[in-house]
Specification:
The structure is a single chain. The chain is α/β, with parallel strands linked by helices. The protein has helices at residues 16-31, 46-57, 63-87, 119-126, 153-163, 197-205, 213-222, 276-286, 317-331, 358-368, 392-402, and strands at 3-8, 35-40, 92-95, 102-104, 113-116, 130-134, 137-140, 144-147, 168-173, 194-196, 226-230, 239-242, 255-259, 262-271, 291-296, 305-313, 335-339, 342-348, 375-379, 382-388. The chain has a domain at 3-247: Carbamate kinase, CATH 3.40.1160.10. Bound molecules: aspartic acid and magnesium ion (MG). Magnesium ion (MG) binds at residues 9-10, 41-42, 47, 151, 419-420.
C-alpha cells in the first residue's frame, strides 16, 4: 500500500456539489488500497475576493495580515471536504499549514517551504484517516502564518508528497492535462501524455497557467512523478510529468506559452562602466523584484552609454515606481521607459538541444506575420520573444502550426482554465 497525494484546485472545489464530487475522487483512490493525503485550494475565486476585500480597507495592507486573511480560503475548503468524506462514511480530518507541520522561510506572501514535519500526518494515516491539508500556507518562527505565493497549493502538494515519500502526486483541475498551448487560443491544441520536468518547468515559468513553477521544481528535486488530470473525468490519466521524456525528443518543440503578465522597463543611457549593472539589479533584488529577460545594448561610441532593458511582473510595477528615483541617482539614466503593451511568447522543448535552426524558424514565422520582435531570450530548451500585445494570438496560432503543436481534434475544455 502506497501513499498518493491528490491536489484539487479552486475550480474543482468551487461549490458544495463540486466538493462532493472531489470526495468521491478521494474515496476512489482510497479504495484502490492507498493512503490518501489531499491538498486543497480555496473555493473558486475566494482568494481574489479576499484580496479585493483587503483593498477596500487599505491600499497598503501589512503582508502579515494578508497571510492571515488569505490562508482562511483554503481552510474553508479543507473542512468542507472533510465533512463531505465523513458524510460518505469514511474517516477524514483537515489540517491547516501549521497543524500539518509545514515550516517555511521567514517571509510573508511568497515564502518557500523549508521543512515538513510529517509525524502528525503519518499518525493520522495509520489510524485510517484521509488527511486533508490546506494548500498554499505554512508557518514560520513561532506559529506565524505564511503563504507561498499565488497558486502555491500545487507546491504544497508536491512538497508533502516528497516528504511523505508518496508514490505519486496528482494535480486535479478542470482541464484534462497539460496542453501544447492554451486551448482557448488554439482550439486544436493537443493534450500531452507525458512531459519532462525540465520542459514543464520552463512552460510554467513562461506563463502556461497550469502549474505553480515551484511545484515542478520540487517534483524534480524529489523525482516525484506528477500527474495533471481532470477532477471531472476520473478515468482519464491526464499528463504524466516525469524525469525524461524520450517520446517527445524527436520533436524539437513540446509546448508554447504566451505570458501577458510582464512589462518591459528600459533604463536609457546608463554609463558603460563596471558595477552599474550590479548596482541596478541589487537595488531591484533588495526590493524583492524578480527580473526576467535582460538585455544590455552595445555601448554607444560617442558618449559611452548603453541601454539596459528587462522585464518585471506587472504586479510589481507599484514597487518599481518607488525605486525609480533611486535608480536615477545610482546609474544616472536619461530616461526610464515602461512599456506594458507587450506579451512574451515562448516555445519550449527538450528536443531543441543541439538542433540548429529552431530560433531561425521561430523568427521567420513571426516575420511572415509582420510581427516585430522587441526582445529575445533563450535557455537550453526555450526561446522567448517579446512582441506587441495585439499580435499575441496571431503569433501563437502561427507558431503552433509551424512546430506541429496543433492537431485535427478540437480540445475538449470548458471556458474556464484552472484558477491558479
Ligand atoms: N488560493 C491560492 C490562490 O488562489 C492558492 C492556490 O490556489 O493554489 O492563489
Ligand atoms: Mg487557486
Amino acid at each position: 500500500m502506497g501513499i498518493i497525494v491528490q491536489k484539487f484546485g479552486g475550480t474543482s472545489v468551487a461549490d458544495s456539489e463540486k466538493i462532493k464530487n472531489v470526495a468521491n475522487a478521494v474515496i476512489k483512490e482510497k479504495l484502490n488500497g492507498n493512503d490518501v493525503v489531499v491538498v486543497v485550494s480555496a473555493m473558486g475565486h475566494t482568494t481574489d475576493n479576499l484580496v479585493k476585500l483587503s483593498k477596500e480597507i487599505t491600499s497598503h495592507p501589512s503582508e502579515r495580515e494578508m497571510d492571515v486573511l488569505l490562508s482562511t480560503g483554503e481552510q474553508i475548503s479543507m473542512s468542507l471536504l472533510a465533512m463531505a468524506i465523513n458524510e460518505l462514511g469514511y474517516k477524514a480530518i483537515s489540517l491547516n499549514g501549521l497543524q500539518a507541520g509545514i515550516r517555511t522561510e521567514n517571509c510573508h506572501m511568497c515564502a518557500r517551504i523549508v521543512d515538513i514535519d510529517t509525524t502528525h500526518t503519518v499518525n493520522l494515516l495509520k489510524q485510517g484517516y484521509v488527511v486533508i491539508v490546506a494548500g498554499f500556507q505554512g508557518f514560520c518562527g513561532k506559529n506565524e502564518i505564511t503563504t507561498l505565493g499565488r497558486g502555491g497549493s500545487d507546491t504544497t502538494a508536491v512538497a508533502l508528497a516528497g516528504a511523505l515519500k508518496a508514490d505519486r502526486c496528482d494535480i486535479y483541475s478542470d482541464v484534462e492535462g497539460v496542453y501544447t498551448t492554451d486551448p482557448r487560443v488554439v482550439k486544436t491544441a493537443k493534450k500531452l501524455d507525458m512531459i519532462s520536468y525540465e520542459e514543464m518547468l520552463e512552460l510554467a515559468r513562461v506563463g502556461a497557467n497550469v502549474l505553480h513553477p515551484r511545484s515542478v521544481e520540487t517534483a524534480k528535486l524529489y523525482n516525484m512523478p506528477m500527474r495533471v488530470r481532470s477532477s471531472f473525468k476520473l478515468d482519464n490519466l491526464g499528463t504524466l510529468i516525469i524525469g525524461v521524456n524520450q517520446m517527445e525528443l524527436n520533436k524539437p518543440v513540446t509546448g508554447l506559452a504566451c505570458d501577458s503578465t510582464q512589462v518591459r522597463v528600459v533604463i536609457c543611457d546608463v554609463e558603460d562602466k563596471p558595477g552599474n549593472a550590479a548596482r541596478l539589479f541589487n537595488l531591484l533584488a533588495d526590493r524583492n523584484l524578480s527580473v526576467d529577460m535582460i538585455i544590455q545594448s552595445y555601448a554607444r561610441i560617442n558618449n559611452n552609454t548603453n541601454d539596459i532593458a528587462f522585464t518585471i511582473a506587472k504586479s510589481d510595477l507599484e514597487k518599481f515606481e518607488l525605486i525609480k528615483s533611486d535608480i536615477n541617482d545610482i546609474v544616472k539614466a536619461s530616461n526610464i521607459h515602461i512599456d506594458d503593451d507587450i506579451v512574451k511568447v515562448s516555445i519550449v522543448g527538450a528536443g531543441m538541444i543541439d538542433r540548429p535552426g529552431i530560433a531561425a524558424k521561430m523568427f521567420d514565422v513571426l516575420a511572415q506575420k509582420g510581427i516585430n520582435i522587441k526582445m529575445i531570450s533563450t535557455s537550453e530548451i526555450k526561446i522567448s520573444c517579446l512582441i506587441e500585445k495585439r499580435f499575441a494570438n496571431d503569433a501563437t496560432i502561427a507558431l503552433c502550426s509551424a512546430f506541429e503543436l496543433d492537431g485535427a481534434k478540437v480540445a475538449d475544455v470548458k471556458g474556464d482554465l484552472p484558477v491558479v
